Give the backbone structure.
Amino acid sequence: MNKFTKFISAVGICFVAAGVGSIATFSQIPTWYTTIVKPTWNPPNWLFGPVWTLLYLLMAISLFLLWTNKNKFKTSAVNIFYIQLVLNVAWSWIFFGWHRLDIALIEIVVLWVAIIKTIIYSYKVNKTAGLVLIPYVIWVSFAGFLNYTIWMLNK
């Protein structure tokens, strides 16, 4: 597989994950999500799409850089990458699909740890592959605090 095909495949994998998560999310934004109490600092709904699009693109770049490297840590980095991607999708289903704010909070902590591990492992393979994931972990940190706050406001 040439580099272009690997890049397109990495983008495809990441955006398929985004699509699977969005199945649970999109229908809930104008319905359930508008009915729950949110903090005053909750970002506007329109912001989430562009932010997540950029983050999934950065994830795809990271995955591509891992795939095109021959470092001995490559397999571990790719495996933890896939784990965090599955956890990412699961959070959308738990929070939006099932409306389980409490379980979503636990899950986002596990996701956060998986992202940190992904950054560490990826950095060992290719520095850029790890560094491009820093905005992702920052956003998920914010999302975790938002998840906690929404849970507390809606208990």
User: Anything to note?
Assistant: The chain has one domain: 3-35+45-153. The helical segments are 3-26, 32-35, 45-67, 74-97, 101-125, 127-131, 134-153. The radius of gyration is 16 Å.
